[in-house]
Amino acid sequence: MYQASYLKHFTREVFLAIGCSEEEAGLASEVLVSADLRGVDSHGIARLAGYVRLYDHGRLNPTPNVTIVYETPSTAVVDGDRGLGLVVAPKAMEIAMEKAEKVGSGWVSVRNSNHFGIAGYHAMLALQKDMIGWTMTNAAPLVTPTFSLDKLLGTNPIAVAVPAKEEPAFVADFASTAVAYGKFEILQRKGLPAPLGWAQDAEGNATTDPNAVKSGGGLLPLGSDREHGSHKGYGLGAIVDIFSGVLSGANFGPWVPPFATAGFMGVQQGVGLGTGHFLGAMRVDGFRPADEFKADMDKWIRAFRGARAVDGQKVLIPGDPEREMEAERGTNGIQLLEPVVLSLEELAKRFGIPFEINI
Q1: Lower CB density within 10 Å: C or N end of the chain?
Q2: CB–CB of 187/193 below 8 Å?
Q3: From 15-19, 29-33, 131-135, 335-339, the region with the lowest mean pLDDT
Q4: What Rg value do the Cα atoms of the chain yield, rounded?
């Protein structure tokens, strides 16, 4: 068990060791460990070694010059200069919010970036300014579109954060696939099978093999198969890829470079620059007075919370499970799987940074 503050400190020290600035190492560690706090273990400190491998292979620039390469009053394209997506995405969201403050909304497409952690973190930045935040990113091609045997899309998540008044914010953060690839990594570490509907094998058959994607198979879009609506998940993933990659000049489709944990795929010649993101901020008072909107959001949330539920269950608002986990782990600590601890111990040894169980 580890305190979040301890994991943030260790993560910050690792990012400093590969050359990140004090400010950006601190921001990157905050974004990464926020995933563990919110229960998204697949995108938290378990990925720290992957970022170091990106650096080792020359794909990560620890001191990027993040610049605007094209803009209008409400839009921009940002070049991340191969920086940590954990840093590039918050900077892009700041640009989106600055534009929203001036003209009502701001939309930023990002190229030449890397994996940016959990999408929800970046979307929630907008809540601080009574704005609605949108975040998307494309990712390495692990997903087979409906009826395809070829992997052409990433897990391509979408996050939307909406402020309320007295109730907690509405925060929807989900992959456009049946499940994120990180869930397979967790199953692999635990030696457990995958549920049917998560992946297909190399011949297109449903499988419970947690290593199926590594063996020529692919992740399935949200819906799993055509009869259960996989074409809708495919469509969502395609939208994310176009907004994040085609619109920005990043790589897209099968050309998106793999994250280090998906290193079983070779990096092929791309059609753009790095990984792409898309971020947006909308001023609530660009539509109606913010207090009125947030009061109505409270009513909306309470209506859903008050819905009759099946026995033993309750109707949740998007963001509830993550908030509950953050409260629990913020108090009691974060439990890490042994393979994750071993990877962190290896980083500690490499960089001469102490790492011990601290709870």
Answers
A1: C
A2: yes
A3: 335-339
A4: 20
Q: Is the pLDDT of residue 344 over 60?
A: yes
Q: How far apart are CA 176 and CA 178, in angstroms?
A: 7
The contacts of residue 146 (CB under 8 Å, 6+ apart) are 221, 225, 226, 230, 231, 234
Contact between residue 351 and residue 55 where contact means Cβ atoms under 8 Å apart: no
Question: Can you read off the two tokens belonging to residue 310?
Answer: 């099946």
The answer, as to whether pTM is greater than 0.90, is yes
> How confident is the model at residue 239, as a pLDDT?
98
Chain centroid to Cα 323, Å, comes to 16
Percent of the chain whose pLDDT exceeds 90 = 90
H-type alpha helices, the chain: 4-17, 22-37, 48-56, 85-103, 119-124, 181-190, 230-241, 290-305, 320-332, 338-351
- Measure the CA angle with vertex 117, ends 231 and 318; round to 5°: 60
Closest to 217 measured CA to CA, from 196, 200, 194: 200
Give the whole-angstrom CA distance, residue 85 versus residue 92: 10
Q: What's the CA gap between 36 and 32, in Å, rounded?
A: 7
What's the pLDDT at 268?
Answer: 60
Phi, psi of 110 (to 5 degrees): -120, 135
- What six digits make up the tokens of 165? 């008044």
- What letter represents residue 247's amino acid? L
Nearest to 294, CA basis, from 162, 158, 115: 162
User: Which residues are CB-neighbours of 288 under 8 A, at least 6 positions away?
Assistant: none
Rounded to whole angstroms, the Cα distance separating 169 from 124 reads: 9
Query: Residue 206 pairs with which residues in a beta bridge?
Result: 200
Length of the chain: 359
Q: What is the Cα–Cα distance from 67 to 112, expressed in whole angstroms? A: 11
